[in-house]
Specification:
Rieske_2Fe-2S_sf, 10 helices, alpha+beta, 2 domains, eight-stranded antiparallel beta sheet, 18 strands, oxidoreductase, Naphthalene 1,2-dioxygenase Alpha Subunit, Chain A, domain 1, Aromatic ring-hydroxylating dioxygenase subunit alpha
Length: 407
Amino acid sequence: MISEELNKRITRVGPGTPAGAVLRRYWQPAALIEELEHGARVPVNLMGERLALIRDDAGQLLLATRVADADEAPTHYPPSDQIQIDADGPTYPVVQRAGAVFAYLGGGTPPAFPDFDCFRAPDTHVFAFKGLWECNWLQALEIGIDPAHASFLHRFLEDEDPDQSYGKQFRDKAGSTNIPMTKLLRDYPRPDILVDETDYGLKITALRHMEDGRTHVRVTNQIFPDAICIPMSREMTITQWHVPVDDRTCYWFTIFTSFDKPVNKELMRAQRLKEHSLPDYAPLKNRANDYHYDPSEQASLTYTGMGLDINVHDQWAVEGMGAIQDRTQEHLGRSDVAIIRYRRLLRRAMDALEQGADQTLLMQEDETANMRGPLSNDAIAQSDDWRNASHQADMQRRAACPWDASV
C-alpha cells in the first residue's frame, strides 16, 4: 500500500503535476488518422487540456487549444463546425504514424520515435484503434503489465478453433503447438514472473511450467511511460498506449502489427465497432448496463460472463476500482512485481524532472531513433532452454517477415 499523497502524485496528470510532466515529455497518441475525415477540426481532450487538431495557414497539422465551457464534460467532443480556437492558448506539434496522430505536449525539442516494429512496419501491416475507459490512466496501464491476470480475468471455459479467431487476443495456438492459448492459460494460472529493466522500460517474462518438462514463455513489455507491447498471436503484436483524457478518464490506443500477411483492416475495424460507438469510441458495454453481464454465460463460457472481447473484461476490472484507484488499501503480491518495478521507474522520472535531471529520462537521447523491437511473443520450450528458445522464436518470425523486421 502507498500513502494518499503518493497516490495523487503518480495519478494526477494536469498541467503542472509531476506525473503529467513526465507524460508530456513523450509523444502521445491524440487521435486516429481516420478521425481527420470527420471535419476540418477534430476535438481532442488530452491530459486535462481541451484541444483540437487543425491545419495552420501552411496546411500543416497541429494541436491547438480550443475554447471550452467551464463545466464541459471531459468526454464531450463538439462537432467540427462548432470548435473555436483560443488564439492565446498553447499549440503543440503532431506527427502521423501507423494510423494514429501523435502529439508532443512537453517543452523543448520532442524526442525521436524509437524504431519499434509498430513504427517500422508498412501501412499495409498495421491497424490502429482506440477505446474509452472511465478510469485513471495508471490503473489502465497496470492491468496490462500483470501477466497473471489473463489466467483468471480472461478465462475461457471452452476453447474455440484458433483458425477461426483472426484479430482476437488469446485465441491463437500456444507457441508452435496445437494447444489453444485459452487452455494453456486456464491450466497453468500461476506463472513465475521475471522483470528486467531495459532502455525503453521493462521486459516482463511469464513462465508457465508444464507437467511434461516444457515451459510456456510469454514475453511482454512496458514501454515507458504509458504503453505496453504484447503478443496477440504468432502473427501479430499489440502496442497499446493508455492516454489520459484527464485524471478520471483515459483512452487506450492500440497499434496492431502483423509480421506475416497484410492486416485485414476492414475485418479488424468491424470487430471493434461491434463493441464501440462513434464518434467518441465509447464501449457499448459499460457500467450503466452492467457490461452485459450474463450469469448463464458465466456458468459455461467465460469467467466474467461479459462476452468474448477481452477489452470488456479489462474495462470492467479497471473501472470497478473507481475512477482513481485507492492504493492506500492495496496489498501487492509476488505476481505484481512488474507493477512495483514500473512505479519505481515513474517515481524516478518524476523526481528527475523536479531536480532538473531531464537527461536521465528513458528514450530521450538521439540513440532512441535506433531502438528496435521489442521482443514480444509466446514460445514453448524445454524448461532448461527457455531463454534461447524464446529468442529463436522471435528471430524466426522476423526472418520470415515480408518487411524489414531485423533487430
